[in-house]
Write a structure and sequence with these properties.
Elements lengths: L1 H25 L12 E9 L20 E3 L8 E6 L5 E8 L7 E6 H6 L8 E7 L2
Parallel strand pairs: 1-5, 2-4
Antiparallel strand pairs: 1-6, 2-5, 3-4, 3-6
Length: about 130
């Protein structure tokens, strides 16, 4: 009985190797890697001087003059395009923090990003947020 078990094990390993070789040879194209599909419309706010230099949720220091943003769920490092729906101005930012923590708001922009889309006088504006590939 012991001899049978030892004979089956090499056959099983050989079978797995042959199967792996077949699967590898059948893949003629590399897999397509796509960015996450995300688009949302809602209120955006910004944060500035009070948080400048503090650590973000990603561990880096917040720079109010960088093109960054806080989002409650998107992965750190993902770039998104934010469009001010009132004036059509757009900015591309990198997610590096968590927030906003106020109901109805979908993104917190850095001071510089908020300035670029013209939302500083209002403080809160309606925007479209779209993940970039």
């Amino acid at each position: 009985m012991r001899a049978r078990y030892h004979m089956r094990k090499p056959l099983r390993v050989m079978g797995l190797l042959v199967l792996a070789a077949l699967l590898i040879s059948c893949s003629s194209r590399p897999p397509v890697v796509t960015a996450p599909v995300y688009e949302a419309v809602g209120q955006a706010s910004y944060y500035g001087r009070k948080f400048h230099g503090r650590r973000t949720a990603s561990g880096e220091r917040y720079d109010m003059y960088a093109m960054t943003a806080a989002h409650p769920a998107l992965k750190f490092g993902i770039r998104v395009e934010v469009t001010n729906l009132k004036n059509g101005r757009q900015v591309q930012v990198r997610i590096n923090d968590r927030g906003p923590f106020i109901k109805g708001r979908i993104i917190d922009l850095s001071y510089a990003a908020a300035q670029q889309i013209g939302m500083l006088p209002q403080g809160v504006v309606k925007v479209r947020v779209r993940a970039l590939p």
